[in-house]
What we know:
Layout: E1 19-21, E2 28-30, E3 47-50, E4 61-64, E5 71-77, E6 84-94, E7 98-104, E8 117-121, E9 136-140, E10 147-148, E11 153-159, E12 163-168, E13 174-178, E14 181-184, E15 190-192, E16 195-200, H1 203-206
Antiparallel strand pairs: 1-2, 3-16, 4-12, 5-11, 5-13, 6-9, 6-10, 6-12, 6-16, 7-8, 7-11, 12-15, 13-14
Amino acid sequence: MKRYVFVVVILALTAVAVAGVVGKDGSTLPDNPPVINSKSEVGRAAFEWNSGGAVDTVPNLGGSSTGWGPYFIVMTTNTVGSDVFLSELGFPCGGPAGTWMVWVGSAQPADSSAPDYSGPFTPTDPSPDTFPPTTYTYVDVTASNVLIPAGSDFWFGYENPGIGGQVDFNGVVTYAWYGGAWDSDEPYGRTAVMQVFVEIVPVELQSFSIE
Length: 211
């Protein structure tokens, strides 16, 4: 008679936090959802654009300031058909403090040192270890009178305060300052999420809008 011996092996499974890549250098952070939500203080505008796609696109990825880049930028175009003022910028990010930046024109900025317009902001989520960073910081820039002529390209972005939101590459090319130059995020399969709202310049002011 044949005898069969069954050996039962019991495997102990240990829960391990899933790490997300936050650096072009391969650095990672564990999943750590934000505990703070945010809401725009500016009403919906004449023109709204988000590099991630829909307004308030929720990031599923993130890049750290040390591993991915201390600055994120993107270019878009004023397609409204009229001169516009920027009213609000939005960045899903986390960390202690940052700076927003805008350059008017199609030429990529040489670096982050001399934007046409800029200003400080305090992120809604103060943690640089949030992953993915889904909480938007909405920055009201109306007082800065950021003017974009009709049909003009412009670049905008921000100083990464610690962690900045990204999505899988969607066709919009964004750049991070990495290795002493603007480095495209496309080869890494990502698009950094940045948002802008604009308002049309009143007709009586448009004669002063193009130098």
